[in-house]
Amino acid sequence: MPNEIFTINLNAQAIIPEAFILLGIVGTLLVDLAGEKTASKWAPIICYFSIGSSLLSLALQWTNPVNSSFLGSFNSDNLAIAFRAIIALSTLISLLISWRYTEQSGSPIGEFAAIILSATLGAMLLCGSTDLISVFISLETLSVASYLLSGYLKRDPRSSEAALKYLLVGSAAAAVYLYGSSFLYGLSGSTNLTTIGLEIINKPSFITSLALVFVLSTVAFKIAAVPFHQWTPDVYEGSPTPVVAFLSVGSKTAGFAFAIRILSTSFSSFDEEWKLLFTILAILSMALGNVVALAQTSMKRMLAYSSIGQAGFVMIGIVSGTQDGLSAAVLYLAAYLFMNLGAFSCVILFSLRTGSDKILDYSGLYQKDPLITLGLSLCLLSLGGLPPMLGFFGKIYLFFAGWANHQYLLVIVGLVTSVISIYYYISVIKMMVVKEPKEASEIVKSYPEINWGIVGLPPLRIALYTCVAVTALGGILSNPFFKLANTAVSETPFLQDIIAIANNIS
Amino acid sequence: MSIAITTQFICFTVLTLVVIIGALGVVLLESIVYSAFLLGGVFMSVAGLYLLLNASFVAAAQVLVYVGAVNVLIIFAIMLVNKKEDLKPIGDIKSRRIISTSICLTLLSLLIRVDLTNVWSLSSPQNSIGEESTIRIGEHLFSDYLLPFEVASVLLLMAMIGAIVLARRDVLSKDISTGLPVDQELIEKSSEPLLTNKN
């Protein structure tokens, strides 16, 4: 054994994108030593470089994916690359919209960037992990960083409450995952996801179902599916808004990537069971998320519930498990990245200028700030799934794939809840646009003069323009997105078994 | 019965009794200090169970991590927040207790059923490696578990930085670029705090 160790081929080039993120973490921590002023100047640049080169190396990996590295702990197949790119992009945009927010709330920028980059590192590794241990470590890196980020504004009791709630629920979820994976290891004698899948085919179904339920509940916690969603509204309301933007896209994407991987490798012979459970989770998430969002008065809380509903839509694609279903899920997550972050950048801009996130305070905004009104309207319409936005094409593809796979119940629930969601999205738009100037809220009446000159606002502006442009035009020009999502699924070896199963059934 | 088996049986019985009684004490005793020390005892006896299973490395790790770090931390935390406070009595405590007891009992019966129905032996019988286990773990850490091992260092670094950020006292008093005063709270001000809102 000792001699073999030196000749093992690790294929370490698979984690080059993560290595760039790691360099970013070290860089931001180093410039932070030179004082807050230097940090606020250099940390953003370092972050842009590290995420940019990470995205570039992901793009280079696209044509020659590494299908096994670190002796089976990590796969960099095309699906993992697609999900990692979504996560890296969501971090980039969340960082762009966070600089002004962190400075205005008086919290240190260098550590903020370092922690959010470590969360990205964990999330990206989670997308490609093919081993129970590396899944756990990367999941914990993501989770611990998320707890820290949500409690980052420590003087605010809401922020501390959010962090504590998140920590307690998250630790319970991690413990449940460990318990489930100890069952899996006990049954199969291996921690590799594929080996587990081969070993547990002939095992008694009772204990494997229990392990499946335990692992699935961790996944459901990460993607905030009902009934594992109770932490979401409070955490989203109490966390700093840029962090919420990251949690609602990056962290969720990582959860979905992990779900697809473990369900289609370890539990591929139990596809009826997990599809049933996922169907229940999807229906509950779509129904509850969208219905409770109707009653919200705070913008962040409304977006929290709407993100629960959106996760339900993505699950339709995963449940159908076909080529189209999975690529629709990938496509919808990419679309969700732009429309949700676009909405969040508008919400952050509004709260930076007014210090409020009440939906009522938005009334009559178009008089004072047409940019926020336009951007938020486009993003919300896209989230609701109205043509010709990006979200419409993503949603229609999901429903089409679900219908083709005979998931009629799911698609009908999806359609009905989409209509409900359009109602609450449009009521925000109506609030901003229709009100007469004299009916405008006090906050809008005393709206400050628009000044883009302050440090940190130009990046926010770039993020806002990009997200809104992609959301508005991406629908019409969505063909390349379709192609990329399709390649991501069809070129990924481990998905082929489950696609074959789904094709046989239908 | 040979002497070895008898000794093992006696050790197992004593350790199991200590674990069960200790765990009950942790939950049922009113004083939190007693609970904390009993928890240390439970951890020690679990380490003993690991030793009986020939897992010396895990036993050592159990003592170092759980008794040496976690339990000491708990006791420190208790000492630091040793504040007399009259907590509000929780309403309908009885029904809450009944619900949580029934949930726990359901889970217990589920696990017992799993334990009884499953065949636990592995397909290929593996000999216990006993003393060699530490070497074997080291080899695994630097071969097939290399990636998680390295990522753990990032996790620890980030946890450490985060703990310092949350715990340190010196906070910025003004916005770095505009010089306006800041309060380290959320930009979105709320009129009522979350907790009072719900009670």
Automatic annotation (TrEMBL), chain A:
It is found in: Cellular thylakoid membrane; Endomembrane system; Membrane. The chain crosses the membrane at residues 12-35, 42-60, 80-97, 109-126, 132-153, 165-186, 206-231, 243-264, 276-295, 302-323, 329-350, 371-400, 406-426. InterPro entries: NADH-Q_OxRdtase_suN/2, ND/Mrp_TM. It is an enzyme of class 7 (translocase). Its EC number is 7.1.1.-. One of its GO terms (molecular function) is quinone binding. Keywords: Membrane, NAD, NADP, Plastoquinone, Quinone, Thylakoid, Translocase, Transmembrane, Transmembrane helix, Transport. It comes from the Bacteria. It catalyses: a plastoquinone + NADPH + (n+1) H(+)(in) = a plastoquinol + NADP(+) + n H(+)(out); a plastoquinone + NADH + (n+1) H(+)(in) = a plastoquinol + NAD(+) + n H(+)(out). It is a multi-pass membrane protein. Residues 129-421 form the NADH:quinone oxidoreductase/Mrp antiporter transmembrane domain. GO terms for cellular component: endomembrane system; plasma membrane-derived thylakoid membrane. Its main location: membrane. One of its GO terms (biological process) is photosynthesis, light reaction. NDH-1 can be composed of about 15 different subunits; different subcomplexes with different compositions have been identified which probably have different functions. NCBIfam families: NDH_I_N (TIGR01770), PRK02504.1 (NF002701). Belongs to the complex I subunit 2 family. NDH-1 shuttles electrons from NAD(P)H, via FMN and iron-sulfur (Fe-S) centers, to quinones in the respiratory chain. The immediate electron acceptor for the enzyme in this species is believed to be plastoquinone. Couples the redox reaction to proton translocation (for every two electrons transferred, four hydrogen ions are translocated across the cytoplasmic membrane), and thus conserves the redox energy in a proton gradient. This is NAD(P)H-quinone oxidoreductase subunit 2. It comes from Prochlorococcus marinus str. MIT 9201.
TrEMBL record, chain B:
One of its GO terms (cellular component) is plasma membrane. GO terms for molecular function: NADH dehydrogenase (ubiquinone) activity; oxidoreductase activity; quinone binding. The chain crosses the membrane at residues 6-29, 36-53, 59-81, 102-122, 145-167. The keyword Oxidoreductase applies. It comes from the Bacteria. Its EC number is 7.1.1.-. It catalyses: a plastoquinone + NADH + (n+1) H(+)(in) = a plastoquinol + NAD(+) + n H(+)(out); a plastoquinone + NADPH + (n+1) H(+)(in) = a plastoquinol + NADP(+) + n H(+)(out). It is an enzyme of class 7 (translocase). It is a multi-pass membrane protein. It is found in: Cell membrane. Keywords: Cell membrane, Membrane, NAD, Oxidoreductase, Quinone, Transmembrane, Transmembrane helix. Its main location: membrane. The keyword Oxidoreductase applies. Belongs to the complex I subunit 6 family. NCBIfam families: PRK06638.1-3 (NF005163). NDH-1 shuttles electrons from NADH, via FMN and iron-sulfur (Fe-S) centers, to quinones in the respiratory chain. Couples the redox reaction to proton translocation (for every two electrons transferred, four hydrogen ions are translocated across the cytoplasmic membrane), and thus conserves the redox energy in a proton gradient. This is NADH-quinone oxidoreductase subunit J. The lineage of its organism: Bacteria, Bacillati, Cyanobacteriota, Cyanophyceae, Synechococcales.
